[in-house]
Amino acid sequence: MPARTRLALGWYQVLGGLAGMLSAGLLAAKGSAGLRQGLTLVAAAAFFMGLGLAGALLLRGHGWARPLSILVQGLQIPKLFTSLFVYELYGPLTATVELRPARWSLGVGLEVGGGFNLGIGAAPVVAVLGVNVVAAAVLWLLLHSPASPGLPPTVRERERST
User: Fold this and answer.
1) Which of 15, 36, 71, 73 has its CA 20 to 30 A from that of 93?
2) How many Cα atoms are found within 13 Å in the side-chain-facing hemisphere of 160?
3) Would you say 79 and 111 are in contact if contact means Cβ atoms under 8 Å apart?
């Protein structure tokens, strides 16, 4: 991976981790969180810590940077709001293409900062299926850029060398 790309993605993930931790921290500071909200905050905090750590490892060129970055970017791609399950994670930027089956409408969303919606049994007004195209683009960059010193090669690079 070229040094500029690695540094840009590293800072992007560090900023996402910081924005998400700030978001989770502000919700936790409100207090009076029940068990469900407390578990959601812990899960979101763990994700955002992983996102920031992946960015920091990319900045340092550590061997675990690429696999951890691939994991945290992959977790940001789906957006799902149904009557049984709510799932959305992003940081620091999301641009989603969304399908709302109730009205068969297609929409686009853009949000800046770190955010999360996690829940079981939460009933949103409208079901939404979406894809975070920013996270998908970052994941594509991680999977298709050539390896740099200290980072493990992609699957394609390993196949080419054999």
Assistant:
1) 36
2) 7
3) no
